[in-house]
């Protein structure tokens, strides 16, 4: 099985980049499943029904989230229901709308997709993502699935790395998201877990994490919070990973970084 995991898609420019690049990747690699982090989908923060449908039409099957996934009105409807294709981190309080895991049927196999969020440097008071992972595996203990894929949405590289050792051999892939900057540490452990600290993002290349660079520079110079604006045209970078999994064992055979650029017109 091959899984294509796309990093945080930022705003309209990110969505346009996906529409230009993803069809070619689907034709080239024929992935069995395409997943993307959607927490920045709608103008850089949150997700709407229209932006979610736009990305589904572009070829993305399922979406994970993070701390910004609740930013837009109507998130409850997108996160709930048996047919929802959008996850939020599983270690939010139980009363939070939506689910943090999803059993996905592809071909003759089931994939357990889990969305977790780190706690280091975040303001949210969340349950332990390590224990949340254990609880989810226990919940599905009697069910048959080919592999486990985890989006670990976190700020600190140390927390992500600690989790990869904690879940080593129990997840087929652990994909770090949130920081928008891709790391060069993709690997497959001897126990068959594919890992990368951060997959990166789909965003304006000449920006600061997808935000117009002058705004962020002014923020640093003045220490006065600025309203974030997101470029709508220019060169976009597209970051993703292609993961190869053994459907019989649930172990990863490989992980490959994908980096593309494309020009998005006004």
TrEMBL record:
Active site per the UniProt annotation: 68 (proton donor)
Keyword match Metal-binding: yes
Q: Return one GO MF term.
A: metal ion binding
Q: Which InterPro entries match?
A: Metallo-depent_PP-like, YmdB-like
Residue positions binding Fe cation 2: 39, 67, 153, 178
Positions annotated to bind Fe cation 1: 8, 39-40, 180
Q: What is this protein called?
A: Metallophosphoesterase
Keyword set for this entry? Metal-binding
Concerning Pfam families, the annotation shows: YmdB
The reply to whether Metal-binding figures as a keyword in the UniProt entry is: yes
Q: Which SUPFAM superfamilies match?
A: Metallo-dependent phosphatases
């Amino acid at each position: 099985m091959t899984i294509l995991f796309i990093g945080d898609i930022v705003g309209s420019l990110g969505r346009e980049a996906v529409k230009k690049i993803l069809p070619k990747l689907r034709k080239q690699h024929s992935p069995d499943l395409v997943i993307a982090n959607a927490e920045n989908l709608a103008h850089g923060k949150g997700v709407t029904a229209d932006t979610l449908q736009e990305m589904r039409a572009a070829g993305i099957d399922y979406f994970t989230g993070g701390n910004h996934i609740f930013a837009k009105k109507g998130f409850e409807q997108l996160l709930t229901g048996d047919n929802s294709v959008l996850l939020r981190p599983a270690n939010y309080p139980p009363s939070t709308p939506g689910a943090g895991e999803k059993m996905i049927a592809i071909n003759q196999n089931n994939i357990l997709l889990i969305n977790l969020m780190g706690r280091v440097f975040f303001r949210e008071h969340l349950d332990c993502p390590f224990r949340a992972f254990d609880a989810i595996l226990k919940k599905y203990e009697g069910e048959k699935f080919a592999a486990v894929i985890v989006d670990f949405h976190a700020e600190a590289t140390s927390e992500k790395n600690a989790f990869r050792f904690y879940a080593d051999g129990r997840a087929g892939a652990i994909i770090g998201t949130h920081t928008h900057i891709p790391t060069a540490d993709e690997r497959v452990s001897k126990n068959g877990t594919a890992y990368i600290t951060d997959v990166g993002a789909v965003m304006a290349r000449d920006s600061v994490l997808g935000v117009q660079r002058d705004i962020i520079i002014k923020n640093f110079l003045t220490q006065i919070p600025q309203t974030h604006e997101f470029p709508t045209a220019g060169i976009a970078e597209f970051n993703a990973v292609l993961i190869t999994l053994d459907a019989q064992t649930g172990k990863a055979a490989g992980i490959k970084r994908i980096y593309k650029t494309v020009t998005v017109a006004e």
